[in-house]
Amino acid sequence: MVFALIFVACLFLGVPVFATLGIPTVVELLSSPIPVSALAASMYDGVDKFPLLAIPCFVLAGAIMARAGITADIIQVMRSLVGGVHGGLAVVTILSSMFFAAISGSGPGTVAAIGTLLIPAMVQDGYRKDYAGAVASSGGTLGILIPPSNPMIVYGVLANVSIGDLFIAGVVPGLMMGALLIVCAYLLARRAGFRGSTARFDRAALTRSAWQGKYSLATPFIVLGGIYLGVFTPVEASVIAVVYALVVGMAIKRTIGIRDLWDSLSEASTICGGLVVILGTALFFGEFLALNQIPQQVASALLALTKDPILMLLLIAAILIVLGTFMETLSTVIILTPILLPLVTSLGVNPIHFGILLVVTSEIGFLTPPLGVNLFVACSISGLKLEEISRAVVPFIVTITLGLLLLLLFPKLSLMLL
Fold first, then answer.
1. Span 132-148, average pLDDT
2. With contact defined as beta carbons under 8 Å apart, do 165 and 352 qualify?
Protein backbone atom coordinates (compact mmCIF):
# COMPACT_ATOMS: atom_id res chain seq x y z
CA MET A 1 0.00 0.00 0.00
CA VAL A 2 2.80 2.42 0.90
CA PHE A 3 4.54 1.46 -2.36
CA ALA A 4 1.48 2.43 -4.43
CA LEU A 5 0.80 5.64 -2.51
CA ILE A 6 4.37 6.93 -2.93
CA PHE A 7 4.32 6.06 -6.63
CA VAL A 8 1.02 7.89 -7.26
CA ALA A 9 2.20 10.90 -5.21
CA CYS A 10 5.41 11.13 -7.25
CA LEU A 11 3.41 11.03 -10.50
CA PHE A 12 1.09 13.87 -9.47
CA LEU A 13 3.96 15.96 -8.09
CA GLY A 14 5.76 15.78 -11.42
CA VAL A 15 8.82 14.01 -10.02
CA PRO A 16 11.22 12.89 -12.81
CA VAL A 17 10.36 9.43 -14.12
CA PHE A 18 13.52 7.67 -12.91
CA ALA A 19 12.87 9.00 -9.38
CA THR A 20 9.15 8.14 -9.60
CA LEU A 21 10.17 4.55 -10.29
CA GLY A 22 13.08 4.52 -7.87
CA ILE A 23 11.78 6.22 -4.71
CA PRO A 24 8.91 3.81 -3.88
CA THR A 25 11.15 0.89 -4.80
CA VAL A 26 13.93 2.00 -2.44
CA VAL A 27 11.43 2.63 0.39
CA GLU A 28 10.04 -0.86 -0.13
CA LEU A 29 13.55 -2.30 -0.31
CA LEU A 30 14.60 -0.75 3.00
CA SER A 31 11.62 -2.30 4.76
CA SER A 32 12.19 -5.76 3.29
CA PRO A 33 14.76 -8.51 3.99
CA ILE A 34 16.22 -8.08 0.49
CA PRO A 35 19.79 -6.68 0.63
CA VAL A 36 20.31 -3.14 -0.69
CA SER A 37 23.01 -4.47 -3.04
CA ALA A 38 20.21 -6.07 -5.08
CA LEU A 39 19.29 -2.57 -6.30
CA ALA A 40 22.64 -2.06 -8.01
CA ALA A 41 22.54 -5.54 -9.58
CA SER A 42 19.01 -5.04 -10.92
CA MET A 43 19.79 -1.57 -12.30
CA TYR A 44 22.75 -3.02 -14.16
CA ASP A 45 20.62 -5.88 -15.50
CA GLY A 46 18.00 -3.35 -16.61
CA VAL A 47 20.34 -1.74 -19.12
CA ASP A 48 22.43 -4.81 -19.94
CA LYS A 49 20.10 -5.76 -22.81
CA PHE A 50 21.66 -6.19 -26.23
CA PRO A 51 18.57 -5.01 -28.22
CA LEU A 52 18.71 -1.62 -26.46
CA LEU A 53 21.86 -0.81 -28.44
CA ALA A 54 19.59 -0.14 -31.41
CA ILE A 55 18.07 2.98 -29.81
CA PRO A 56 21.17 5.23 -29.60
CA CYS A 57 22.25 4.13 -33.07
CA PHE A 58 18.87 4.89 -34.69
CA VAL A 59 18.71 8.24 -32.88
CA LEU A 60 22.24 9.07 -34.03
CA ALA A 61 21.47 8.01 -37.60
CA GLY A 62 18.39 10.26 -37.66
CA ALA A 63 20.36 13.22 -36.28
CA ILE A 64 23.12 12.79 -38.88
CA MET A 65 20.62 12.42 -41.74
CA ALA A 66 18.74 15.56 -40.74
CA ARG A 67 21.98 17.56 -40.84
CA ALA A 68 23.16 15.90 -44.06
CA GLY A 69 20.24 17.26 -46.09
CA ILE A 70 18.57 13.89 -46.51
CA THR A 71 15.33 15.36 -45.16
CA ALA A 72 15.35 18.04 -47.87
CA ASP A 73 15.84 15.38 -50.56
CA ILE A 74 12.85 13.40 -49.28
CA ILE A 75 10.64 16.51 -49.21
CA GLN A 76 11.59 17.48 -52.77
CA VAL A 77 10.63 14.05 -54.09
CA MET A 78 7.30 14.14 -52.26
CA ARG A 79 6.54 17.62 -53.63
CA SER A 80 7.17 16.36 -57.15
CA LEU A 81 4.93 13.36 -56.49
CA VAL A 82 1.89 15.13 -55.06
CA GLY A 83 1.57 18.09 -57.43
CA GLY A 84 -0.96 20.85 -56.83
CA VAL A 85 -3.86 19.05 -55.13
CA HIS A 86 -5.81 20.72 -52.31
CA GLY A 87 -3.59 20.70 -49.25
CA GLY A 88 -0.70 19.54 -51.42
CA LEU A 89 2.01 20.71 -49.02
CA ALA A 90 0.12 19.16 -46.10
CA VAL A 91 0.08 15.83 -47.94
CA VAL A 92 3.80 16.29 -48.65
CA THR A 93 4.38 16.90 -44.93
CA ILE A 94 2.70 13.65 -43.91
CA LEU A 95 4.32 11.61 -46.71
CA SER A 96 7.73 13.03 -45.79
CA SER A 97 7.05 12.25 -42.12
CA MET A 98 6.23 8.66 -43.06
CA PHE A 99 9.47 8.35 -45.00
CA PHE A 100 11.59 10.01 -42.31
CA ALA A 101 9.89 7.87 -39.65
CA ALA A 102 11.46 4.86 -41.37
CA ILE A 103 14.82 6.37 -40.43
CA SER A 104 14.51 8.16 -37.09
CA GLY A 105 12.27 6.13 -34.74
CA SER A 106 11.32 9.33 -32.90
CA GLY A 107 8.09 11.36 -32.92
CA PRO A 108 9.43 14.78 -31.86
CA GLY A 109 12.53 14.20 -34.02
CA THR A 110 10.32 13.71 -37.07
CA VAL A 111 8.37 16.90 -36.33
CA ALA A 112 11.60 18.86 -35.97
CA ALA A 113 13.19 17.47 -39.13
CA ILE A 114 10.14 17.85 -41.40
CA GLY A 115 8.36 20.77 -39.74
CA THR A 116 11.40 23.06 -39.79
CA LEU A 117 11.28 23.02 -43.60
CA LEU A 118 7.58 22.59 -44.35
CA ILE A 119 5.74 24.69 -41.75
CA PRO A 120 7.29 27.95 -43.13
CA ALA A 121 6.72 26.65 -46.69
CA MET A 122 3.02 26.04 -45.99
CA VAL A 123 2.58 29.48 -44.42
CA GLN A 124 4.32 31.08 -47.40
CA ASP A 125 1.93 29.27 -49.77
CA GLY A 126 -1.15 30.64 -47.97
CA TYR A 127 -1.94 27.92 -45.45
CA ARG A 128 -3.02 29.01 -41.96
CA LYS A 129 -0.18 28.75 -39.49
CA ASP A 130 -2.18 26.70 -36.97
CA TYR A 131 -3.17 24.22 -39.70
CA ALA A 132 0.46 23.89 -40.80
CA GLY A 133 1.60 23.26 -37.23
CA ALA A 134 -1.17 20.70 -36.65
CA VAL A 135 -0.26 18.78 -39.81
CA ALA A 136 3.43 18.65 -38.89
CA SER A 137 2.64 17.59 -35.31
CA SER A 138 0.30 14.83 -36.48
CA GLY A 139 2.65 13.56 -39.17
CA GLY A 140 5.40 13.41 -36.57
CA THR A 141 3.44 10.87 -34.53
CA LEU A 142 4.19 8.32 -37.27
CA GLY A 143 7.81 8.44 -36.11
CA ILE A 144 7.05 5.89 -33.38
CA LEU A 145 4.66 3.66 -35.38
CA ILE A 146 6.48 3.16 -38.67
CA PRO A 147 9.58 1.09 -37.86
CA PRO A 148 12.23 1.47 -36.62
CA SER A 149 10.55 2.71 -33.44
CA ASN A 150 12.22 3.43 -30.12
CA PRO A 151 9.10 2.59 -28.04
CA MET A 152 8.80 -0.72 -29.91
CA ILE A 153 12.37 -1.59 -28.99
CA VAL A 154 11.74 -0.82 -25.31
CA TYR A 155 8.46 -2.75 -25.34
CA GLY A 156 10.16 -5.71 -27.04
CA VAL A 157 12.80 -5.83 -24.29
CA LEU A 158 10.28 -5.55 -21.45
CA ALA A 159 7.76 -7.97 -22.98
CA ASN A 160 10.44 -10.40 -24.16
CA VAL A 161 9.08 -10.49 -27.72
CA SER A 162 10.92 -10.23 -31.03
CA ILE A 163 11.73 -6.64 -31.97
CA GLY A 164 11.94 -7.71 -35.61
CA ASP A 165 8.37 -9.05 -35.41
CA LEU A 166 7.23 -5.78 -33.82
CA PHE A 167 8.82 -3.83 -36.67
CA ILE A 168 7.09 -6.03 -39.26
CA ALA A 169 3.77 -5.70 -37.40
CA GLY A 170 4.10 -1.89 -37.48
CA VAL A 171 4.26 -1.61 -41.27
CA VAL A 172 0.57 -2.00 -42.18
CA PRO A 173 -0.72 0.08 -39.21
CA GLY A 174 1.84 2.77 -40.05
CA LEU A 175 0.79 2.95 -43.70
CA MET A 176 -2.89 2.88 -42.74
CA MET A 177 -2.46 5.65 -40.17
CA GLY A 178 -0.50 7.74 -42.66
CA ALA A 179 -3.28 7.31 -45.24
CA LEU A 180 -5.94 8.35 -42.71
CA LEU A 181 -3.96 11.48 -41.77
CA ILE A 182 -3.55 12.36 -45.46
CA VAL A 183 -7.31 12.08 -46.02
CA CYS A 184 -7.96 14.25 -42.95
CA ALA A 185 -5.45 16.90 -44.08
CA TYR A 186 -6.92 16.90 -47.60
CA LEU A 187 -10.52 17.30 -46.42
CA LEU A 188 -9.61 20.11 -44.01
CA ALA A 189 -7.60 21.89 -46.73
CA ARG A 190 -10.41 21.52 -49.27
CA ARG A 191 -12.92 22.93 -46.81
CA ALA A 192 -10.65 25.90 -46.00
CA GLY A 193 -9.64 26.44 -49.63
CA PHE A 194 -5.93 25.77 -49.08
CA ARG A 195 -4.32 24.84 -52.36
CA GLY A 196 -0.92 26.46 -52.49
CA SER A 197 0.96 25.71 -55.69
CA THR A 198 -1.17 25.00 -58.77
CA ALA A 199 1.62 23.15 -60.54
CA ARG A 200 0.49 19.96 -62.29
CA PHE A 201 2.09 16.59 -61.74
CA ASP A 202 5.26 16.36 -63.82
CA ARG A 203 6.72 12.89 -64.31
CA ALA A 204 10.01 14.30 -65.55
CA ALA A 205 10.37 16.49 -62.44
CA LEU A 206 9.61 13.49 -60.21
CA THR A 207 12.22 11.39 -62.01
CA ARG A 208 14.78 14.19 -61.69
CA SER A 209 14.19 14.73 -57.97
CA ALA A 210 14.18 10.97 -57.30
CA TRP A 211 17.50 10.57 -59.09
CA GLN A 212 19.05 13.52 -57.24
CA GLY A 213 17.85 12.13 -53.91
CA LYS A 214 18.55 8.45 -54.69
CA TYR A 215 20.99 8.00 -51.82
CA SER A 216 18.56 9.55 -49.35
CA LEU A 217 15.60 7.54 -50.64
CA ALA A 218 17.56 4.30 -50.39
CA THR A 219 18.09 4.66 -46.63
CA PRO A 220 14.88 3.07 -45.26
CA PHE A 221 14.96 0.33 -47.89
CA ILE A 222 18.50 -0.63 -46.89
CA VAL A 223 17.80 -0.51 -43.16
CA LEU A 224 14.32 -2.04 -43.01
CA GLY A 225 14.77 -4.30 -46.03
CA GLY A 226 17.73 -5.95 -44.36
CA ILE A 227 15.69 -6.60 -41.20
CA TYR A 228 12.64 -7.97 -43.01
CA LEU A 229 14.72 -10.20 -45.29
CA GLY A 230 16.65 -11.56 -42.32
CA VAL A 231 20.00 -10.22 -43.55
CA PHE A 232 20.71 -8.52 -40.23
CA THR A 233 19.15 -7.94 -36.81
CA PRO A 234 17.59 -4.62 -35.67
CA VAL A 235 20.77 -3.82 -33.71
CA GLU A 236 22.98 -4.49 -36.74
CA ALA A 237 20.57 -2.46 -38.88
CA SER A 238 20.92 0.52 -36.53
CA VAL A 239 24.72 0.44 -36.88
CA ILE A 240 24.43 0.12 -40.66
CA ALA A 241 22.11 3.16 -40.63
CA VAL A 242 24.78 5.21 -38.83
CA VAL A 243 27.53 4.11 -41.21
CA TYR A 244 25.35 4.76 -44.26
CA ALA A 245 24.37 8.22 -42.96
CA LEU A 246 28.04 9.09 -42.46
CA VAL A 247 29.01 7.87 -45.93
CA VAL A 248 26.18 9.81 -47.60
CA GLY A 249 26.66 12.97 -45.52
CA MET A 250 30.46 13.15 -45.49
CA ALA A 251 31.64 11.36 -48.63
CA ILE A 252 28.82 11.57 -51.20
CA LYS A 253 26.81 14.74 -50.47
CA ARG A 254 29.60 16.37 -48.42
CA THR A 255 27.07 18.39 -46.45
CA ILE A 256 28.25 17.64 -42.91
CA GLY A 257 31.52 18.24 -41.15
CA ILE A 258 33.08 17.49 -37.79
CA ARG A 259 30.96 20.15 -36.07
CA ASP A 260 27.73 18.59 -37.39
CA LEU A 261 28.91 15.15 -36.34
CA TRP A 262 29.66 16.44 -32.83
CA ASP A 263 26.19 18.03 -32.60
CA SER A 264 24.61 14.75 -33.73
CA LEU A 265 26.53 12.78 -31.11
CA SER A 266 25.54 15.31 -28.42
CA GLU A 267 21.87 15.07 -29.40
CA ALA A 268 21.90 11.27 -29.37
CA SER A 269 23.72 11.05 -26.02
CA THR A 270 21.33 13.53 -24.39
CA ILE A 271 18.26 11.58 -25.51
CA CYS A 272 19.62 8.12 -24.73
CA GLY A 273 21.36 9.01 -21.46
CA GLY A 274 18.04 9.77 -19.81
CA LEU A 275 16.54 6.56 -21.18
CA VAL A 276 19.33 4.44 -19.68
CA VAL A 277 18.72 5.89 -16.21
CA ILE A 278 14.97 5.22 -16.51
CA LEU A 279 15.42 1.65 -17.73
CA GLY A 280 17.87 0.91 -14.94
CA THR A 281 15.28 1.67 -12.27
CA ALA A 282 12.41 0.22 -14.32
CA LEU A 283 13.50 -3.40 -13.96
CA PHE A 284 13.80 -3.17 -10.18
CA PHE A 285 10.44 -1.34 -10.11
CA GLY A 286 8.90 -4.21 -12.08
CA GLU A 287 10.31 -6.76 -9.63
CA PHE A 288 8.69 -4.96 -6.71
CA LEU A 289 5.42 -4.73 -8.61
CA ALA A 290 5.51 -8.51 -8.88
CA LEU A 291 6.55 -8.82 -5.20
CA ASN A 292 3.54 -6.74 -4.12
CA GLN A 293 1.28 -8.61 -6.59
CA ILE A 294 0.16 -5.31 -8.10
CA PRO A 295 -0.28 -6.76 -11.64
CA GLN A 296 -2.58 -9.40 -10.17
CA GLN A 297 -4.55 -6.76 -8.23
CA VAL A 298 -4.96 -4.57 -11.32
CA ALA A 299 -5.97 -7.61 -13.35
CA SER A 300 -8.57 -8.63 -10.76
CA ALA A 301 -10.04 -5.13 -10.67
CA LEU A 302 -10.31 -4.88 -14.46
CA LEU A 303 -11.53 -8.47 -14.89
CA ALA A 304 -14.33 -7.66 -12.45
CA LEU A 305 -15.56 -5.16 -15.05
CA THR A 306 -15.27 -7.39 -18.13
CA LYS A 307 -13.61 -10.53 -19.42
CA ASP A 308 -14.24 -9.77 -23.07
CA PRO A 309 -10.85 -9.09 -24.76
CA ILE A 310 -12.22 -6.35 -27.05
CA LEU A 311 -13.93 -4.49 -24.21
CA MET A 312 -10.83 -4.92 -22.08
CA LEU A 313 -8.63 -3.43 -24.80
CA LEU A 314 -11.07 -0.54 -25.22
CA LEU A 315 -10.93 0.11 -21.48
CA ILE A 316 -7.13 -0.05 -21.44
CA ALA A 317 -6.92 2.23 -24.50
CA ALA A 318 -9.10 4.83 -22.75
CA ILE A 319 -6.88 4.67 -19.65
CA LEU A 320 -3.72 4.98 -21.76
CA ILE A 321 -5.06 7.98 -23.67
CA VAL A 322 -5.80 9.78 -20.38
CA LEU A 323 -2.38 8.88 -18.96
CA GLY A 324 -0.74 10.04 -22.20
CA THR A 325 -1.80 13.60 -21.50
CA PHE A 326 0.71 13.86 -18.63
CA MET A 327 3.13 10.94 -19.11
CA GLU A 328 5.91 10.74 -21.70
CA THR A 329 5.67 7.87 -24.21
CA LEU A 330 8.64 5.77 -23.10
CA SER A 331 7.63 6.25 -19.47
CA THR A 332 4.15 4.94 -20.26
CA VAL A 333 5.58 1.89 -22.02
CA ILE A 334 8.09 1.17 -19.24
CA ILE A 335 5.65 1.56 -16.35
CA LEU A 336 2.55 -0.10 -17.79
CA THR A 337 3.94 -3.02 -19.81
CA PRO A 338 4.68 -5.24 -16.77
CA ILE A 339 1.26 -4.38 -15.30
CA LEU A 340 -0.99 -4.77 -18.35
CA LEU A 341 0.75 -7.37 -20.50
CA PRO A 342 0.00 -10.38 -18.20
CA LEU A 343 -3.64 -9.27 -18.08
CA VAL A 344 -4.22 -9.03 -21.84
CA THR A 345 -2.27 -12.20 -22.65
CA SER A 346 -4.43 -14.09 -20.14
CA LEU A 347 -7.40 -13.06 -22.30
CA GLY A 348 -5.75 -14.40 -25.45
CA VAL A 349 -4.46 -11.09 -26.85
CA ASN A 350 -1.29 -11.47 -28.93
CA PRO A 351 1.58 -9.56 -27.21
CA ILE A 352 2.77 -8.23 -30.59
CA HIS A 353 -0.70 -6.84 -31.30
CA PHE A 354 -0.87 -5.30 -27.83
CA GLY A 355 2.51 -3.64 -28.40
CA ILE A 356 1.19 -1.97 -31.56
CA LEU A 357 -1.91 -0.74 -29.72
CA LEU A 358 0.29 0.61 -26.93
CA VAL A 359 2.37 2.57 -29.47
CA VAL A 360 -0.71 3.98 -31.24
CA THR A 361 -2.24 5.24 -27.99
CA SER A 362 1.12 6.88 -27.29
CA GLU A 363 0.77 8.69 -30.63
CA ILE A 364 -2.31 10.43 -29.26
CA GLY A 365 -0.32 11.46 -26.19
CA PHE A 366 2.09 13.35 -28.47
CA LEU A 367 -0.81 15.63 -29.46
CA THR A 368 -2.62 16.20 -26.16
CA PRO A 369 -1.62 18.99 -23.77
CA PRO A 370 -0.28 19.63 -21.23
CA LEU A 371 2.56 17.23 -22.14
CA GLY A 372 2.03 16.87 -25.96
CA VAL A 373 5.68 16.94 -26.97
CA ASN A 374 5.00 17.22 -30.72
CA LEU A 375 2.87 20.31 -30.10
CA PHE A 376 5.70 22.06 -28.26
CA VAL A 377 8.11 21.30 -31.11
CA ALA A 378 5.64 22.68 -33.66
CA CYS A 379 5.00 25.75 -31.47
CA SER A 380 8.71 26.52 -31.33
CA ILE A 381 8.94 26.28 -35.13
CA SER A 382 5.77 28.22 -35.96
CA GLY A 383 5.74 30.74 -33.11
CA LEU A 384 2.17 29.76 -32.19
CA LYS A 385 0.74 29.50 -28.69
CA LEU A 386 -0.07 26.02 -27.39
CA GLU A 387 -3.81 26.80 -27.23
CA GLU A 388 -3.90 27.76 -30.92
CA ILE A 389 -2.25 24.61 -32.20
CA SER A 390 -4.17 22.43 -29.72
CA ARG A 391 -7.48 23.48 -31.28
CA ALA A 392 -6.24 22.88 -34.82
CA VAL A 393 -4.95 19.39 -34.03
CA VAL A 394 -8.31 18.03 -32.74
CA PRO A 395 -9.44 16.58 -36.13
CA PHE A 396 -6.14 14.72 -36.40
CA ILE A 397 -6.54 13.30 -32.87
CA VAL A 398 -10.01 12.05 -33.89
CA THR A 399 -8.46 10.49 -37.01
CA ILE A 400 -5.74 8.66 -35.04
CA THR A 401 -8.38 7.47 -32.57
CA LEU A 402 -10.38 6.07 -35.49
CA GLY A 403 -7.24 4.25 -36.67
CA LEU A 404 -6.74 2.90 -33.13
CA LEU A 405 -10.29 1.50 -33.11
CA LEU A 406 -9.74 -0.20 -36.48
CA LEU A 407 -6.54 -1.83 -35.21
CA LEU A 408 -8.21 -2.85 -31.96
CA LEU A 409 -11.22 -4.43 -33.70
CA PHE A 410 -9.21 -6.07 -36.48
CA PRO A 411 -5.99 -7.57 -35.04
CA LYS A 412 -5.08 -8.99 -38.47
CA LEU A 413 -4.09 -5.48 -39.53
CA SER A 414 -1.18 -5.78 -37.12
CA LEU A 415 -0.44 -9.46 -37.57
CA MET A 416 -1.06 -10.06 -41.29
CA LEU A 417 2.63 -9.85 -42.27
CA LEU A 418 3.89 -12.17 -39.53
1. 90
2. yes
